[in-house]
Amino acid sequence: MAEMDMGLAPSPRKKRKKKKQSFWKSVKLGLIPVKGDSVSEIVRKLVFLSALVILVVALVLIGVYVAQFIALELNAAVDENGNRTATDAHLFEVKNRTPTAQEIEQLPEGSINEEYAALYAENSDFVGWITIPGTNIDYPVVQTTDNDYYLHKAFDKTWLFEGTIFADYRGPITSDGMPHNTVIYGHNMLYKYQFTALTNYKKDISFLRMSPIIDFNTLYGDGKYKVFAVFVVNWEDKYGDVFDYTGNTYFHNQAEFYNYVLECGDRSIYDTGVDVEYGDEFLTLSTCEASTYMDLRLVVVARKVRENEDPTVDTSKIVRKSSIKYFKGYYQIYGNLWKGRTWDTSVIKGLDAYIKEHGLEDDPSNYQ
User: Fold this and answer.
1) Phi and psi for 125 in degrees, rounded to 5?
2) Cα torsion for 49, 189, 267, 257, to the nearest 10°?
């Protein structure tokens, strides 16, 4: 007690310093569920981890897109006016150079366009070249035994997200002739390449008036096609009726032909005034339409210019229709319900008689 009286208190015990956790251990404990975590804490961590994974994947995809876009820009060909095109410079170089005798010799039997021999030598899936004047669509077209291979393959068959423009395998392009309806697919990219330019047909009637002709030249002959219809279709039953515009690569009779043409005309955004008759060949261009949450396609159908026919189009006849056939999902978003058939069906030779014979009239007066 004497010590206490003299102010000499016992020395306090020294507290142990807590060992600091490493940064990565703190992150680990904060993100990964561990024994002892409450249910709410586990849920919080799982939600955060899921969001983090989505963010990383999104950043990687954006990085890939940006890298490919830069590569496309750097490798793009330059036209005679000094403007960059949407086609790889190497492909343009191969297309424009004089093919060797050996390359010409390797062309398939019946080929007449020897200018494409070098392209065919690089890839024997090559069947032709598509160009839409007034746009940057100026590409080689390939065709193989399915509709999946070139979705994400370059012309040289290496992986490429935007893929290569390709023709539907169900309508082979050979020396024996073209299918009745050649369907060609291309991606609608976030940037300006592949079939992105097709979206301008939907957006602007002046674009259609400026570019009403599509050129598609194959190994076996040249072709010009007049745009007949432009429409948007649904690809899933849950959003309404589905028009399988890809299912008619061949018309086995007049009924199949008229039914196809009637659907195209009813669904078309425009009345183009382009005449059509049984026996005409079609070129159908297809790409994704991403304006809604639905799985939609934007389709441009063109009719081949006949032998000895004037290849020009009277663009003054092109008008936007007042009644356009869509589908349930589209009507729910935009309204604009179908109000009956208002386009000039007389431009399709024999169609009016077919409509009457089969009771397919759809008079606008019935919707008033």
Assistant:
1) -85, -5
2) -120
- Take residue 34 and report the two structure tokens written for it: 């561990």
- 16-71 pLDDT tens trace: 555 555 655 565 566 677 666 777 776 776 777 677 778 777 676 666 555 555 55
Is the confidence at residue 192, as pLDDT, over 90?
Answer: no
Cα–Cα distance, 160 to 168 (Å, whole number): 19
Phi, psi (degrees; rounded to nearest 5) at 63: -60, -40
Residue 64 carries which side chain, given as an amino acid letter? V
β-strand partners of 234: 296
Task: Give me 308's structure tokens.
Answer: 């000895």
Burial (CB count within 10 angstroms: exposed 0-12, middle 13-18, buried 19+), residue 102:
exposed
Q: Which two tokens stand for residue 204?
A: 């602007």
Residue type, 249: T
Tokens linked to 166 = 């390709």
